[in-house]
Amino acid sequence: MSDQTESTAHAGPQQIYEAFLAEGRFMIQRSRSTGEYVFYPKVMAPSGAVDLDWVAPSGLGTIYAITVNRRREGAHNVALVTLDEGVRMMTTIAGVETLPIGARVRAQVETGETPRIVFVPLGTVPQEAGA
Amino acid sequence: MTHPLRGKTAIVGMGVAGMGEAPGFSAMELLGQSVRAALDDAGLALSDIDGVFAATASHAFASMSVTEYLGLRPRFFDSTNIGGASFEMHLLQAALALDAGLCDVALIAYGSNQRTAGGRLVSMSEPQWHEIPYGYRHPITAYAMAAGRHMHQYGTTREDLAEVAVAARAWANLNPDAFARGALTREEVLASRMISDPLTTGDCCLVTDGAAACLMVRADRARDFPGAPVYLLGAAGANWHRSIQAMPDLTVTAASESGPRAFEMAGLSRADVDLVMLYDAFTINTILFLEDLGFCPKGEGGRFVRDGHIAPGGALAVNTNGGGLSCVHPGMYGMFLIAESVAQIRGAAGDRQLPRADIALLHGNGGALSSQVTAFLGSAATL
Question: Any alpha helices (H) in chain B, and if so which ranges?
Answer without folding.
Answer: 27-42, 62-70, 86-99, 114-117, 140-154, 158-172, 186-191, 255-266, 283-292, 301-304, 323-326, 334-345
